[in-house]
Amino acid sequence: MSVEKFRIETKSLVVTLILVFNFLLFFRQPIIAADFKDDQILVKLNPSLSSADRLSFHRDISGFKLKVVPEIALEVLQVNSSGLLKTLDRLKSDPRVIYAEPNYLATTYELSNDPAVLNNSEWGVYKIKAADANRSAWNLTHGSKEVKVAVVDTGIDQNHEDLGGKIVGQKNCTSSNTSDDLYGHGTHVAGTIAALTNNAKGVAGVGYNTTLINAKALGDNGSGYYSWIAECIVWSTDNGAKVISMSLGGSSSSKAMEDAINYAWNKGVVLVAAAGNSGNTNPSYPGYFSQVISVAATDSNDAKASFSNFGSWVDVAAPGVSIYSTLPNHQNAFKKLNYGYLSGTSMATPHVAGLAGLLFSLGNLDNQKVVRLIEENSDRISETGSSWIWGRINVYKSVTAFLEGQLFTPTPTLAPTITPSPKPTATPTLTPTSVPASIPAAPTAPTAPKSPSKTPFTSRFCSRYPQFC
């Protein structure tokens, strides 16, 4: 081949590659943009900047300040959507900026289900031993109305018969003009946590007498931006929440979200979040953050739900298939009024949040002790050690462990470890399981899983309990 011909063919190949790259980039950008607000960025500036320097920064990027979350020094700025990605790239090397990122989108994690194949038993509270014909956590404690659980979600129905009087605080962090739940998801979550119990109506809440904070962070379409979630986390913390329940998630990590999580954790709050419904090991945020209890979903047979995310970053499991709970008494996305069945890791999460609320009501417990009581006293059902670290929660065992003074004390040589299973190839599907018509008897012992290996602490454990590592 002649040198000239080689040069011509090489140039042709380079031009072709550039065209292909530009073609892919052209079609890739709208997909990325769909995951975040295309005209907003989240910025944390260097605290040493003067007011004049801050004004200069906003002018330099043509950014209009929409909102500030002062507790974590977070600014939500409106910028030119056509130059958003370039602006973010430029700010990476700007010494005035600690971080700058898109305002990512998060969504609810629920899967609707056909209730016709099921009956009206609320099987989840029996499976986790909150209620039971014999050994029940509710025989030991009914919780306390002084313990507030924040539901960071789509809102809570304001006048539901099974939630009336339970809402003790409200904040609307969204662009919606109401704190009410027009979607339905948040109301369903709230019922599992703290529906009015022993009132001869509807359903029982795991947290029994615990109360609710309605922190609306998702809009009336079931999705919302990370800035809304971060603001609601901070507000809930500052307004007395001991537990924050987040049945939501997004696929992108975020410094702003992490700042809000750390703010709450450092003030003694227990944070709980859904692992996600993709049926794989992909992380979901905020559940992936080490200070959050991430929750997978199981069915009434203690099997992992086919849709549930899993892996070494998932802490515990809880009932999440065909969960019967409250729904709004007005029009909502699920087209059921007052009560209904939903499935998802969103439905598993409030079981754990309700348990955390019960534990806080028992005495002088900090958030580290509450988390350890939940995790260490979980039942080692099948897939413990492969799909999640600790097991499926057991309310009775967690409460009893505290009352009997059996709080786990870790040593620097033992910690649970897991090896994630391969990513499933089949598209996740939801297959309802039968639910007993009456209060179930004590369940048969599950197949014993492999015991956790005796290996050094996982990074997730050490980040939550550095004093033990």
UniProtKB/TrEMBL annotation:
The active site is at residues 153, 185, 346. Belongs to the peptidase S8 family. GO terms for biological process: proteolysis. The lineage of its organism: Bacteria, Candidatus Gottesmaniibacteriota. GO terms for molecular function: serine-type endopeptidase activity. It comes from Candidatus Gottesmanbacteria bacterium RIFCSPLOWO2_01_FULL_39_12b. Residues 426-456 have a biased composition (Low complexity). Keywords: Hydrolase, Protease, Secreted, Serine protease. Its main location: secreted. Residues 145-378 form the Peptidase S8/S53 domain. Gene3D superfamilies: Peptidase S8/S53 domain (3.40.50.200). Residues 34-103 form the Fervidolysin-like N-terminal prodomain domain. This is Uncharacterized protein. GO terms for cellular component: extracellular region. InterPro entries: Fervidolysin-like_N_prodom, Peptidase_S8/S53_dom, Peptidase_S8/S53_dom_sf, Peptidase_S8_Asp-AS, Peptidase_S8_His-AS, Peptidase_S8_Ser-AS, Peptidase_S8_subtilisin-like, Peptidase_S8_subtilisin-rel. It is found in: Secreted. PROSITE patterns: SUBTILASE (PS51892), SUBTILASE_ASP (PS00136), SUBTILASE_HIS (PS00137), SUBTILASE_SER (PS00138). The keyword Secreted applies. Residues 413-456 are annotated as: Disordered. SUPFAM superfamilies: Subtilisin-like.
